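Whether sequence alone determines local backbone shape is best considered at the level of individual chains. The sequence in question and its structure tokens are set out directly beneath this paragraph.

===
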Amino acid sequence: MATGASSAASRSRRPVGKVVMEGVRDFATSSPARFAILVFGSLVLLFTALLSLPIAAADGKVTPLADALFTAMSTICVTGLVTVDTATHWSAVGKTIIFIGVNIGGMGVLTLASILGLAISRRLGLRAKLIAAGDSNPLRVHGGPVNEGQTVRLGEVGQLLRTVALSTLVIEAAIAVALYPALVMAGITPLNALWEAPFYAAMAFTNTGFTPNPGGLAPFADDYFLLTVLMVAVFLGSIGFPVIYTLSRHYWHISRWSLHTKLTLITTMALFFAGAVAFLSLEFDNPGTFGSMDAADTTFQAFFLSAMTRSGGFAVVDVGELYGSSLIVGSMLMFVGGGSASTAGGIKVTTLAVLALAVWSEAQGRASVQVFGRRIPSDVQRVAISVLAWGATIVAVATITVAQITKAPIADVLFDVISAFGTVGLSTGLTEALPDPAVYVMAVTIFMGRVGTVTLAAAVAATSRSQHYSLPVERPIVG
């Protein structure tokens, strides 16, 4: 009895900070996915409070909660959708808060959680490595064995985190240096260009799409160099940190590229060119978009629009003027998004690649899915199907809800909802006019799209349960 009392007294004398740290560490250990969601949710609340401050607004007044929350969600989740004009509503302080937020959010849910775990534990232990590695291989958020061969191995997670930090810093700095003279030549004063260049660089690499100047990219519509730099930055941000890590190690040795890297690059380029051809074919005679341009302008703008619908969020033409057929093409591209563990959203290009390879293998009567001399296991295929199903369900529910609240045209609602889910930032103009209830629905859609369907599914599951028996097989009729 005395021993129990002594132990209780010893616990009561422990510093509160240490107890809190141990509690956070235990929570992170038991559920890395939930810990990551908690981290992002906390960041959204923090930035909502910061953006609500009078000093963050250009008029010196408190920003309404719905607008502050939505902007914070769009910032942390690197989306770019807005309910208030970024250039005119926010002060220099507010734009600085947004700049910091997109760089924090661009590192990714699980990568960010691993860095915080590293700060807590003072070292990159197995737990932190598992959290970080989950961002390069979502299967690790589930229990059971995982093949490490095609992603980033646990022993390389520390190097991956350094790649995340260094690539973000180096790429954004290089993009800012390239953009500065272009902005000055476009009429931006040299002093303003000093902060607009890094702002645009951050928005491009993180695939966010906020613009700091009135009119967005309209003043630079004919500046092919500036728009090309933005496209390159969006591409680098959308392929994912694991791909950047692989390319940095084996740039000229394609045979050493992981299967994930090959599938990401091939699918990304295929969608880029397919989207450009589709927009070029559908919009060449549209007087509201490409109809008044010559052949060279039309071709370039088609490629730019294709790149931005993948998750970039910048727009030169008025998206609201696109034909309905082009809105559908854009919605499809936004739904797919970019690469895994990238600053892009969507269901990810590797998910699409795995599903396409599975369909092709089934059509050829193969027992397994094979590509580039590798076999894709069935658990990866199941995750791909789950991601597609969850993504489609989220988009469907959000579209029905927003359409019911606003009574707006369903094509516009669907486009903006998918833009929110894919964290793209393009809009037909609907989002800025949404009532508060619809704004909150869109904010939740952004959060679910950025956190990721795999992470959400893992967070919902309380524990991983193993089943030591199998049930009798019976085959339902499919198709």
Q: What stands out?
A: Residues 33-141+149-458 form one domain. The longest strand covers residues 369-371.
